[in-house]
Amino acid sequence: MLTTARVDLVPFEVERDLGALHAMFSDPEWARGGYMTPAATEEESREWLEREFGDNGGWTWVLRVRPEQEAAGVIGVFSDQGTSVRGISWYLRRTSWGAGLMSEVARVVVDHLLRQPSISAIEAWIDSRNVRSIAVARHAGLDLVGRLPRTNPGEIAQSVVMGRAARPADPTTFGFSPVLSVRDLDETVRLLCSLLGLHVRFQLGDLAYLGCTTWNGQSGLEVRRVSGPVAPTTMTVDVGVLVDAVYDAAVAAGLGESTAPEDMPWSRRTFTLVLPEGHRLTVSGPLRA
Ligand SMILES: CC(C)(COP(=O)(O)OP(=O)(O)OC[C@H]1O[C@@H](n2cnc3c(N)ncnc32)[C@H](O)[C@@H]1OP(=O)(O)O)[C@@H](O)C(=O)NCCC(=O)NCCS
């Protein structure tokens, strides 16, 4: 058992804890707060717990807020996916929100997990709008390490990936900047910015450097002006929006050679954006909701 200032963390037992956790998982307002779908039946709650924590080597704890004996929530790592970077999730019943309980618990649990020899890092995938959960992750020492598209019922959203390594180290390589050679630099930059939401980080003579966001320090794209023939390049661009709207805008901009969007077996929807000078950008985004 682990303990924090106010909470006992007791190893999860499905038959003992299912009732209390189902009361939480089936609360529609609770689920809305986490941008999730509530469980309709106790069986669904059982499947939820089995799917997330079923094969995780026992690293699931229920929270008992002293002196209560009933589970107020649950925290655990995902079922073993054969990697030393382990995903974590945390769930607390709505009546206990906002008192700092999960922040207190997550810190203790993450510190404990990172002391295990088989775990090199902990990561949490959190809906970008779930500011409470992002704050919990920060309290547990996790930082923003990435972003992924996410398909929810009825909407496309984004997950932020928060992570903390047992032994933090600066990466050797932290980005790629592919080069696109073009004759018409200004028109290519205009098209890429308007279709893909890119930002001009700087433009100097025959070079424009485009970033995904207005922030510096991330991967980008170098667009270089050349005078001779252009060798068409192929590259993939990950987007966090439905690609259909990007495809429609590309066709409206006169890029009629672009191919129509298709669902791929690796759970992405893609189309090929063909630029005026023949470069082919595979635009890869979330599946439709
Ligand atoms: C996410 C969750 C576990 C947080 O638990 P909690 O005990 O309420 O969290 P804390 O009280 O420790 O608060 C976390 C942060 O949220 C902030 N917060 C509290 N109430 C808030 C509100 N109404 N709006 C925005 N932020 C709020 C707190 O200020 C705190 O940040 P700070 O300490 O930096 O100020 C809980 O809200 C929950 O179970 N949500 C539904 C399930 C879920 O989303 N799980 C995570 C899936 S990734």
TrEMBL record:
InterPro entries: Acyl_CoA_acyltransferase, Glyas_Bleomycin-R_OHBP_Dase, GNAT_dom, N-acetyltransferase, VOC_core. GO terms for molecular function: acyltransferase activity, transferring groups other than amino-acyl groups. Residues 173-286 form the VOC domain. Keywords: Transferase. SUPFAM superfamilies: Acyl-CoA N-acyltransferases (Nat) (SSF55729), Glyoxalase/Bleomycin resistance protein/Dihydroxybiphenyl dioxygenase (SSF54593). Residues 7-167 form the N-acetyltransferase domain. It holds the Pfam family Acetyltransf_3. The keyword Transferase applies. The keyword tRNA-binding does not apply. Gene3D superfamilies: 2,3-Dihydroxybiphenyl 1,2-Dioxygenase, domain 1, 3.40.630.30. This is RimJ/RimL family protein N-acetyltransferase. It comes from Kribbella jejuensis. The lineage of its organism: Bacteria, Bacillati, Actinomycetota, Actinomycetes, Propionibacteriales.
